[in-house]
Structure of Methionine synthase reductase:
Amino acid sequence: MTTTRRKIVVLYGSQTGQAETIANGIHEDAVYNNYDSNVFCLKEEGKEFVITDVTCVIFVCSTTGDGDPPENARKFIRSINRKSLSETHLSKLNYALLGLGDTNYSTFCGGPKKLEKALKQRGAKSFFKTAYADDGTDLEDTVEPWIEGLWPALDVYFSSLGTMPNNVMVRNVQSCETVNHTRTEVNDVKADMENLALSKDKIPTIPKDDPSTSSLLSNMTSVDSSQSLLNSFETEIPSNEMLNMSSAPFPGSEELATITLSPLSKQWIGMRFVDAERISLQSQDFKYQNGHSFPLATSETILTKLVEAKQLTRDDAVKIAMEITLKTEDQFPYQPGDSISVCCENPKEEVDWLISRLSLNDVADNAAEFFVLPNSSKKATNPCPYVPRIFTIRYAFTYCIEIRSVPKKMLLRSLAEYTTDQSEIRRLQELSSKQGGHEYVALIREKNVCILDLLAAFKTCSPSFELLVQHLPRLMPRRYSLINSPLVSKNHLSFAFNVVKFEKDIGRMYARDGICTGFLHNLGNASSNTTNQNISQLPSIKVFRTKSTGFCLPTDTSPPLVMIGPGTGVAPFIGFLRHLEALSAQTTDRWLFYGCRHKDRDYLYKDELESYLNKGILSRLLVAFSRDPTSSESPKYVQDNLKLHSLDIANLLFQKRAIFYVCGDARNMAKDVRQCIIEIITKERNCSDKEAVDLFKQVLDEKRYREDIWA
Ligand code: NAP
């Protein structure tokens, strides 16, 4: 046996940063376990590492679009797919692969599957079973056990080579710290949590005239939810509102007597103040998020002016839909069906509360910089590239950090280290433990709890700003489909959306709007309330164009089109129809299937759609109302109308070779529509289910069934 240190390389392909975070965590654990480990992005091949020189690699790769590898992995996959390479090109390479995907989308884990196929074709060998984690349910359900199993698998692999690590302590389930709570202790914890929930203490509130909070972002409009946020936090927390265990026993809670603590992720981001003086940083002082690139961005981030905000629904609609129109200064080339990403900000009131809760009021506006802690194994020179090099805490929390993201178990585990009250520590440990998985999902994940909720509930928890930056993801721009045609609106970009609402709930300590839809809604209200129509005074919004997913009109406009888009899913079709009208494109079979809840309350673009029908731009307009009291036969959903026209649909699919477009909800609607089309094929082609699925796959391969769906 030799005593060489075991050498591994962790390589990631990451679109939104999740795969990168997981890869970094594996690398940290590897260093902790005395492996000679490095972590790189796959795009660094040839610069930081050479794939033919490495023998043991852990790949973490996500998926984007319709089953594509992330952008930063594509070149690597292309390079090992080169026909000129032999089948043994990577025969020295032994790998383990963790794939990330989302079953709400049609091609689950397409990115990592393509990567693995390419690796295998070049002779690489897997030493540990590949796993595919599903973001549609819970990534951590798969990621955690896979990482636990990785260490013994690496041990077996290296042992087979005859290498012995230096004092290695392979971290696995057994070697993780185990905390035994007796049954009584667990009940104590539950009682403590009830006490916590019943506590008469008030959560610290922010003086509304605090000068340190008003110096920045003075141009932000007041947010309606601010008052409700502050009021929520000022009122006592009702007993049933915070992690009240006794009224809701969870499966698996019996197991909580013994909890296995997951490894504590090492802190590696440090921060220092570079200037004792306060500075006021406004969004326009920097390129948004330091100009750091965004996945799928296909244009520079440009500044637009919000020129119009319209409510599209009646006030009594179940969901309030709005249309926003932005004016661009310069040319902004786009196609109908394209989408833009809106750079949003966190609500001022929440940022202020967070700063106050972390006792950072005195320093929140001081110039600061990040650094990598000296004893860290991280090689990064800039720990947080999407925060300007010199920043303020307030700026980072407002523009760069996703403070509403659901805290990962790793964060809960770290928060326990910053908490003083024993019952709170135990509760955080439980929620972050393997045994607390069900509770974590039910109380944190499914309730969309965020760090503010946790800090409101766990009153003795005082994490550092750096810890939160390390664990909370980057604030990502939100994507919206354009409803314009470039032939009609050259300098205007419009999109429609529902204002997302989250009511107060167990664990969710205050009512809130969606981050971006709330931001747009408030800016829209502010702009429509202003009498000053001087464009320079209108609210500014930064946007960029997002890569087309192939959801576009064919260049030749003659093929028949079938458009299926309930709710705001109709948005890109409005763009299509405006474009076809502007082209005076010859009328052919063009069907639109739309669905909403009530004819009079939320039928979006009703007049415009009916006018397209009258002008012959549309040949059929079929609308289903899901909640209007009509006869039991009347169609409820778009699928019902598809079925009512099943023979026409089959003809359009096979004889007329129409292009089908589906836009809207990925979780239910898109799946149900696919199923409905397969049933129509079975019926109209008089074939078996399997044959129908095969026929449908052919249509997919011919790119005649296109989806732009949103989970
Ligand atoms: P929605 O809530 O999905 O509802 C629209 C209609 O669809 C309602 O009548 C609803 O009926 C019905 N519906 C519910 N379940 C269905 C199913 N399984 N099959 C068919 N119809 C069903 O509409 P929305 O709120 O506008 O949502 C559309 C989705 O598309 C959202 O997820 C949105 O984020 C996304 N989207 C986003 C953009 C964007 O630009 N960001 C663009 C397009 C779409 P009931 O509620 O009565 O059951």
